[in-house]
Amino acid sequence: MKRFVLSILLIGDALALLLFAYLGRRAHGLIDETWPAIGVLITAAEFTLPWVIVAWLLGAYPRGEVLSWSALLGRALNAWLIAAPLGVLARAGVLGQAVIPVSFLIAALGFGGVILLSWRMAFALIWRMMTSPRAQEQP
């Protein structure tokens, strides 16, 4: 069961960050018409890799403990506050930028955080409903 939950969280987080990358590239007119998925995947990877590493280190992925709101959301928020700036640095490095606009960092923290934490909140609510004592009593 632990591996199942971990897999769902990893896939969901990656999809949330993929959505964040797509929306950001689309908002800035950066969707390549010839190879639209390539740029989105690269941008998503620039945020997903730091996210997975930091989230793992800070306990945003369960390691045997009971899934709790603090693990799913609180630790995820803490991890995002570290991973997002790392993702912005990775993005700047790929683009060859020496200067990172503060507005980009704020947007990444805000919009990426909202998308990522919204997905995790939905997961937490569904998980809670599925594992509540009332749900287990239902025939």
Short summary:
The chain is 79% helix and 0% strand. 22% of the residues are buried.
Task: Identify the notable features of this structure and list them briefly.
single chain, 139 residues, mainly alpha, elongated
List the helices and strands and how they pair.
Elements: H1 2-27, H2 36-57, H3 69-95, H4 102-131, H5 133-137
Helix pairs in contact: 1-2, 1-4, 2-3, 3-4
- The average pLDDT score comes to 88
What is the first-to-last residue Cα distance? 21 Å
Oligomer: single chain
Segments where pLDDT lies below 50 for 5+ residues? none
Query: What overall form do the CA principal axes indicate?
Result: elongated
Structure overview:
This protein has 139 residues and is mostly helical. The chain has helices at residues 2-27, 36-57, 69-95, 102-131, 133-137. Helix 1 (2-27) crosses helix 2, helix 1 (2-27) runs antiparallel to helix 4 (102-131) and helix 2 crosses helix 3. It is elongated, with a radius of gyration of 17 Å. 79% of the residues lie in helices and 0% in strands.
